[in-house]
């Protein structure tokens, strides 16, 4: 039976042709001489191994046929209408790239044409401009800075011989005069060549770029990359056996499915829409498969595929040991629900199970805390509650829903002798989580001695004594109602597990994988550490400090999570265009961020291989003109054929959600509000808060409400102690960054009145 490799084609085929193409490949995998397949060589092709096969009367599949050690190996490139398929087949060459160490397909042009001086395809805007009858929208700013340009030391010859770029690609790259043109060249090259060029254009050294792409440590048993210059020279790029070996490594844009029908189905289904299911970047594959001696942290900007790595890693851990108990967790229940759906898409066969069972458990951290308490004995919960909240507490029957109001009431009752800014509910809440709960403080004496590392505002002994009056009152009022906050419940659950572990009892999980960890509060970290024993592959933590929009930064090391030497960053953005990415990064420029360990977090080096329209910022006179501008932009997207469910309007406050929905509805555009993790529904434009949009993505996005009066929302900042204000302002900036990075293709920002200082440059 012939073996088969699938290539991640750039074109898409529609439903009926898809199932015929799948049928064709299933037959080919069994017998390439089967009647009806019509596997035919081409007349005068660039590569004699190219074949076409008959999918139906109108469509042809394009394949390469290799023979290595007596075995036939077909490479499926894609399916196209008959004439196009013939041209693609005749102009394509399958080869091994000895410098990058991968198989690749190069477009060399039709044989009767001279090898063309390369003309990069113009990047097509996704959306046509608004109809002329509509009022022109006043636009201020924004052309992203031209940051990606190939260093002048790269000549065409060096690109070809040292970096493995095709001759035509090298010429085109040097001829590109803008970032957009360069991205268009990159997008048209074989994938790995494109990634090499992208790295060089970002100023990375060739050695670093190649090391990243050629990494074979990810469990691949096939080593194809030559190790030295001599070896490079010895490799014949056209040799069938060499190409065959490279394809079997399933790297980059190829996946080897051999003669396995299940793998064929999985790879085929992901070809058009869900490439992330099978085609991972070598770095993504490495982090999904590597074994780590302890806790590991994966950082990376929005859209770099952190969630994709977590999903693959969960599957790899399960495959390596089906009796392992694996937890995939995140900040909220809504995001966990989205992880469940994505894991099912990756592999519906994976067992998604209840906590403590072999398989993969997916839940938000607060759900996990509740389950730990439900599964513990009454005595254990009573003891842990007393240990965390004080000896007179033993039940936690009700949830506190209005924490800030309860702090206000506690201040009134306790009337401490302190300046106003130390009595702000937001400050008190953070102090309570990060110091009181994190240190297991139960009385004034504990609080006076507790470590406050990482907290901005210094507090002397007297201030702490006064503050403790508030915390004690806060606890007393909840005692009367048997009520507890979510962070309190997480801290109690962690205490239950720590006591169990100290007595030699079993912990619920063998491996814990975390998404969106930048938003965890201190008790979440306590619980996380307590869920799994320290050891190999215990914790795998994905986070992006630039997306911290809740709570406070707390160093993981305070909770016994040490990632020293085990922290890596993903840089390739799979979600957004280079233009949207440049705009989103400009929102962060000049601002110092630090990661969970308080080390400076760089916002540089992120890149995208796609190009699209430059984002626009529309500054209009007032709120009603802003709604009009939003309606007009949404309408132009809809009339250009964008599906309503692929469009989102993201706003700063709940109040603005209604304003946007009402505006769209009265203009006859179907829309409704949605909260985290879900969209408004089929046929509807989604309107949601920027907070709710975390973790989501849409083809076209309007970020509405970037006016000076809306963002930063001053109620989140005013009244805070000086040292906390910077962090609060940073969260508002991050919120804009989160919102702007939800857009795949097109991004518009609107502001009523004066634009916010956060978007002015
Ligand atoms: N190897 C890949 N091939 C194709 N698409 C990919 C790949 N990796 C990720 N993607 C796509 O890129 C987008 C972003 O991926 P993902 O959500 O994992 O990123 P993220 O880093 O978790 O983003 P955020 O921090 O914004 O939540 C998704 O649409 C995902 O399907």
UniProtKB/TrEMBL annotation:
Residues 113-128 have a biased composition (Pro residues). Pfam families: UvrD-helicase (PF00580), UvrD_C (PF13361). One of its GO terms (molecular function) is ATP binding. Residues 111-135 are annotated as: Disordered. ATP binds at residues 300-307. GO terms for cellular component: cytosol. InterPro entries: DNA_helicase_UvrD-like_C, DNA_helicase_UvrD/REP, P-loop_NTPase, UvrD-like_ATP-bd. It comes from the Bacteria. One of its GO terms (biological process) is recombinational repair. This is DNA 3'-5' helicase. The lineage of its organism: Bacteria, Bacillati, Actinomycetota, Actinomycetes, Micrococcales.
């Amino acid at each position: 039976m012939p073996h088969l490799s699938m290539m991640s084609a750039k074109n898409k085929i529609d439903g009926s042709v898809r199932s015929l193409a799948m049928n064709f490949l299933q037959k080919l995998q069994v017998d390439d001489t089967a009647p009806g397949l019509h596997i035919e060589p081409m007349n005068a092709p660039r590569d004699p191994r190219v074949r076409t096969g008959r999918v139906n009367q109108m469509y042809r599949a394009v394949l390469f046929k290799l023979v290595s050690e007596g075995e036939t190996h077909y490479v499926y490139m894609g399916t196209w209408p008959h004439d196009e398929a013939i041209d693609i087949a005749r102009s394509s060459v399958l080869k091994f790239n000895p410098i990058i160490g991968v198989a690749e397909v190069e477009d060399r042009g039709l044989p009767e044409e001279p090898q063309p001086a390369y003309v990069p395809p113009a990047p097509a805007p996704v959306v046509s401009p608004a109809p002329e009858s509509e009022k022109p929208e006043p636009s201020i700013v924004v052309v992203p800075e031209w940051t990606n340009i190939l260093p002048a030391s790269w000549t065409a010859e060096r690109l070809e011989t040292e970096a493995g770029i095709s001759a035509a690609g090298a010429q085109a790259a040097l001829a590109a005069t803008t970032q957009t043109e360069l991205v268009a060249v990159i997008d048209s090259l074989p994938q790995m060549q494109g990634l090499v060029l992208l790295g060089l254009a970002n100023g990375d050294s060739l050695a670093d770029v190649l090391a990243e792409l050629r990494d074979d440590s990810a469990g691949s048993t096939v080593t194809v990359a030559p190790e030295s210059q001599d070896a490079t020279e010895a490799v014949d790029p056209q040799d069938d056996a060499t190409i065959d070996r490279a394809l079997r490594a399933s790297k980059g844009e190829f996946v080897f499915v051999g003669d396995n029908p299940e793998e064929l189905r999985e790879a085929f289904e992901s070809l058009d829409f869900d490439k992330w299911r099978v085609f991972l970047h070598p770095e993504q594959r490495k982090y999904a498969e590597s074994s780590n001696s302890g806790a590991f942290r994966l950082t990376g900007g929005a859209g770099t595929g952190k969630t994709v790595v977590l999903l693959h890693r969960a599957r790899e851990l399960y495959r390596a040991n089906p009796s392992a108990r694996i937890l995939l967790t995140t900040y909220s229940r809504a995001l966990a629900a989205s992880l469940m759906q994505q894991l099912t898409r990756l592999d519906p066969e994976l067992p998604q199970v209840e906590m403590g069972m072999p398989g993969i458990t997916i839940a938000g951290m607060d759900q996990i805390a509740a389950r730990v308490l439900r599964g513990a004995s009454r005595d254990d919960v009573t003891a842990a509650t007393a240990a965390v909240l004080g000896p007179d507490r033993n039940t936690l029957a009700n949830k506190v829903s209005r924490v800030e109001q309860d702090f206000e009431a506690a201040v009134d009752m306790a009337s401490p002798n302190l300046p106003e800014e130390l009595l702000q509910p937001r400050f008190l809440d953070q102090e309570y989580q990060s110091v009181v709960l994190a240190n297991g403080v139960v009385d004034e004496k504990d609080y006076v001695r507790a470590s406050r590392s990482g907290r901005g505002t210094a507090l002397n002994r007297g201030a702490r004594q006064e503050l403790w009056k508030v915390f004690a009152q806060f606890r007393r009022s909840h005692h009367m109602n048997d009520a507890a906050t979510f962070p309190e419940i997480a801290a109690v659950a962690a205490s239950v597990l720590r006591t169990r572990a100290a007595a030699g009892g079993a912990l619920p999980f063998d491996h814990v994988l975390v998404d969106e960890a930048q938003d965890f509060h201190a008790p979440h970290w306590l619980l996380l550490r307590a869920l799994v024993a320290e050891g190999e592959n215990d914790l795998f933590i994905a986070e992006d400090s630039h997306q911290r929009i809740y709570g406070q930064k707390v160093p993981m090391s305070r909770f016994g999570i040490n990632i020293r030497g085990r922290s890596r960053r993903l840089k390739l953005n799979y979600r957004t265009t280079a233009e949207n990415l440049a705009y989103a990064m400009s929102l962060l420029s000049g601002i110092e961020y630090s990661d969970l360990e308080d080390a400076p977090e760089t916002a540089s080096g992120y890149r995208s291989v796609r190009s699209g329209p430059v984002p626009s910022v529309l500054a209009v006179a007032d709120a009603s003109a802003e709604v009009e501008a939003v309606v007009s932009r949404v309408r132009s997207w809809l009339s250009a054929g964008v599906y309503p469910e692929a469009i989102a309007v993201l706003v700063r406050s709940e109040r603005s959600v209604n304003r946007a929905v009402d505006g769209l509805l009265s203009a006859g555009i179907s829309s409704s509000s949605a909260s985290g993790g879900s969209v408004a529904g089929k046929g509807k434009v989604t309107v949601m808060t920027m907070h709710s949009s975390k973790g989501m993505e849409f083809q076209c996005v309007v970020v509405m409400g970037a006016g000076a009066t809306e963002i930063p929302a001053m109620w989140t900042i005013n009244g805070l102690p000086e040292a906390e204000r910077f962090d609060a302002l940073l969260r508002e900036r991050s919120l804009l960054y989160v919102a702007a990075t939800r857009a795949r293709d097109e991004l518009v920002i609107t502001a009523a009145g004066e634009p916010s200082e956060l978007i002015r440059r």
